[in-house]
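User: Run a structure prediction on this.
Assistant: Running it now.
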Amino acid sequence: MLGVLVTSSLTAHAEPWLLIDDFESPQRFSSWIQEDTKNETQPRVETPQVTQVQLEIIDGVSNHYLLKKPAPEGVIGNRKALTYSRLPTSVPVGSTYTFYTRINVQSFPNNHAFGISNMDGLGIKKNDYNAFEPTLRVTDKIESNGFKNDGALMVKVEQGYANVINPKLNRSAMPLVAGTWYETWYVVNNATKAQGGQRYDVYLKGGEEFPTQTKVFSEATFRMQRELPLTHFMMNCNTGPMSSPYGNGGLKYDDLYMTPGLNLTYPQSNN
């Protein structure tokens, strides 16, 4: 279920949007792989992550979305709940692509990350967070250094993560509001680092803070900067360690698309 169209002079002759998944087709959803690669649950739950298509009805319109949680309520110790699927086309080194994703925080506390990987399935399972390149993060967890995240949308930077900003107020964006759909556009430059690539810009629309599409971060950095073709969409979440769990709050996903170049319109599927 997509929003109303925004206008952009940058996209008058844009390439078609390619559908990664809108979770309306069981056949398409079957391509997603689920792996719990650091399962420390006690008593042990063999497949603790909750990754399931659910239905919502808004103003009489039905829509399916993906709910992802590291484990059901009351289960802790699932440290790497990975879900990933191959992109409809890879992003070659030297290319720029725009990705579009709708997200909705089911509840806090939580710890979620999603984005694009240039590793295959084996590499994703082995490297988990380090399989990401462009990465978006939603969490209110306390970091190991004692810093408390507040639930704002975050991006990857050279030294850890940073909240996206409200450019009108020149400050960090407010925390995402649970139960609210937000639309994200992330413009991914997969050129080499020497050519100014391995970076991405992020645009956000949703909630009272961003009623219109707004650029909220420029030149976030790829996590690993491996300078390889991007091949997979990837999600990860984490209950935290048994000794100090974060919480099992879920994140909803819908309408995952990609298209060559800079494209700030709303997707229309051509699949």
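The chain has two helices and 17 strands.
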